[in-house]
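Sample 1 of the test manifest.
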Amino acid sequence: MAGSSERIVVIGAGMVAHRFAESLLSRVEHPLELVIIGEEGLAPYDRVRLTSFFDEGAEALALDPAQVQDDPRVRFVPGDPVRRIDRDEQQVLTVSGERIGYDRLVLATGSYAATLALDGFSLPGCFVYRTLDDVQRLRDFVAHRAAQLGRPLRGTVIGGGLLGLEAAGALQGLGVDATVVQSSERLMSAQLDLAAGAALRRRIEQRGIAVRTQSVTTRLDPDRSGQVAGLEFKDGGYEATDVVVFTVGVRPRDELARKAELDCHPRGGVVIDAGCATSDERILAIGEVASFEGLAVGLVAPGYAMAEVAATRLLGGDAAFPGYDLSTKLKLSGVDVASFGDAFGETPGALDVVYADPVAGVYKKLVLSDDAKTLLGGMLVGDASAYGALRPLVGSALGGDPAAYLMPEGGVEAPVAELPDEAIVCSCSSVTAGRIRSAVHDEGCADADSVRACTKAGATCGSCTVMVKKLVGKELAKSGKVLSNALCEHFDLSRRQLFDAVRVSELDTFSAIIERFGRGRGCDVCKPALASILAVLVGKHVLDGENATLQDTNDHVMANLQKDGTYSVVPRMAGGEVTPEGLIAIGAVAKDYGLYTKITGGQRIDMFGARLEQLPEIWQRLVDAGFESGHAYGKSLRTVKSCVGSTWCRYGVLDSVGMAVRLELRYRGLRAPHKLKVGVSGCARECAEARSKDVGVIATETGWNMYVGGNGGFTPRHAQLLAEGLDDEALIRAIDRYFLYYIRTADRLQRTAPWVEELEGGLDGLREVIFDDALGICADLDAAMDAHVANYEDEWAATLADPAKLRRFQSFVNAPSTPDPSLGYVPERGQVRPASGEERRSGAVLIASTTLEVRR
Amino acid sequence: MTLATPTASAATQPAWLPLCRLDDLEVERGRAALVDGTQLALFLLRDGGVHAVSNLDPYSGANVISRGIVGSREDAPTVASPMYKQVFDLRTGLCLESHGKEPLHLRVWKVAARDGELLVKWEA
């Protein structure tokens, strides 16, 4: 590219266009002008994870657009499709009439979902499954139609490929009784052979989705309201249905190219060469609209590869598209399917190694070269855990007995072949093993998260994360470092190991524990971790004996440190419930001590600006008014948020406030690896936002639904459904076990969401532990929780009752009640806030905090 | 203890000032002290050693060092600021872990014990 400001116009704003823009912008500093013209009127989103929309909402699909959209070189034109390409003038014309000139044009228009040309294919209730708009309309239709008919819907997915199975899962998630209709004799016929297809069919049926193969649909019928009501098959069969989703493949959107007389393939797609150039050298095509060697493919990974090639070419490099990698993995919970490389063994002389367990619904096949040494491809059904390890090995030696890769999990340890540098580990982002190695060695990445940030490996579909982790571990080990689980320089053990060590050894002081299991005198990492472990196992007051030296200042003074060195005080308001008398008492305390007050996100009141020496007096006032510590400072249960529930709400199904109060009083003071939050909603409207909590409880007509592993914060997550229709006692036992299992096994500062994610067996594994007692620890967990409940005491009241503990709250050892003279405040909106450095220097608006009777 | 014998001379500067009783301090838990408007953080270690450093955390501007967690880093006794967790060597005040910020250090004062009383060699 010339050094001047060349204008590159991209038509299309999907994932591939986004990747192209990202790649281009990140590689050059010099000025260029990039115009991205999108049709959907939305910022680019992750279409591969479209189905996640139903669980996580549209926001979860956003593709970190800031990097591209905030770049001053980019102009993003959403919602104004291109009408025509004028090659002579080097301009594109949009529907709104704008003419945009280009030096180079990149077509990334993608494809559209095909429907079948059947009678009735466009009846209300018929959908395709392609865009965010499609799934939003599908969801709305299902909700509306189910209400209209007053019963659960029957749904039909026409097309039994990858997307069809996902769509069927999504329908099922919406409460629809789903059937997949496939014209050929097996599911996922492009990826699986007959035996694998049969194993998959059993899996799908076990999941409660009906399958109908060798069924060609011939007609769709409406009911009297004109909405779809039934379908007729070629063999004369007829089935009733209320909603139909077509997933019968995609067609390249090459109309613009055809009108502009660019070479297009008869079967669709703009013909490109290995450099992604079309028949007009100023125009490139990438992604699903492009046809390479006679093929247009609806997968994102090859599109990404083309995006990188196109960006390189535009910058004057000579990258070439290597051809399509057709590896795929089905993303449908409970149904593991993957297919990669030469899965059908079409290479001459190819050998198959097959493992099948029809009872367990597992079928695995590896395709090897004629000497049985080189891996060519494979298909995995029922257990695709080896996918991440195997796919990068395609084309290289397996390095061991191939059978070991096929054995059930936990059986024979699979041999670990060294991946060649050029092996693709992340196919979505085309990240090679070599690139990950260099991220570790040259860029200082020390875990999978930083490698993801650095290389994008694992950032799209996530199926390679385990592989990335292993690779990082190995590379660190090579350079003498370990992907260390060690807590810190004082303990080689991880938090989980340390928890077990303390439990088994029954040691109960820091000194004894560090002498036995560690070295030195600890630090701000291991000391609070041990304080938390001892709180759970021994359960003494945070300031008892040596315990006091382990606490972070928040736990030590049972309040929250603020930026100026004062603290905030939060009394418990279980379930967010408070009496008028309680509010008046809190108001009086805040007024008398001049504290800034604010309602917290957890439905209680925070009072800011309390000095160390004031804390016991403030507690005394609060305890006298019937309050206790809210543990806002602890890595422990914070609040149980609730909506008003059936006691007052017109829509409430169960008493959410009552349950929230009960839960908060049960788990108050429970120390954990990180803070714990709970929410209880009284009906499916979910006003308590319970699914953003570590435990979300939502009332239904049949009992409580329990969700786990949600959080807000830096990486927001929605909690996932663990159990349905629980009664009060069953709910509480399930939460007891979930909390204690987490407390015993999580890493330091690991919240429940990543803990659940890393649990062996995932949510199913967790269910087995909690409900089936698969580890035989439930009695132990129950006893531990009963002990916690029985031994609970209010930390504030206990401190007030002990003069020795109160001495810690003197401001200065030689001036016990003198306030910190450095504090200063300014008024704001009728309250105070700490003065800024500038305000202190000017001195004009300073209010010293030396008295308590005057409002500061 | 950093120094053994305090001088008796109170008139000359710097002077040895009594601050508190040694048993006012707790092992591995700091206390703040106030001298002429300046705040000190006092630490009693497990081996009986006492250290006095500035209570002012140079990273946050708040007087909170006395409320940090005491520990060790290799051979050095340390305190970690409770605000942004920078770690300082209690003997020298040097910042051992700045968490990516420019290293800023703590001022230190010499201390001594006499008849169970803790004295600081005071220089403003």
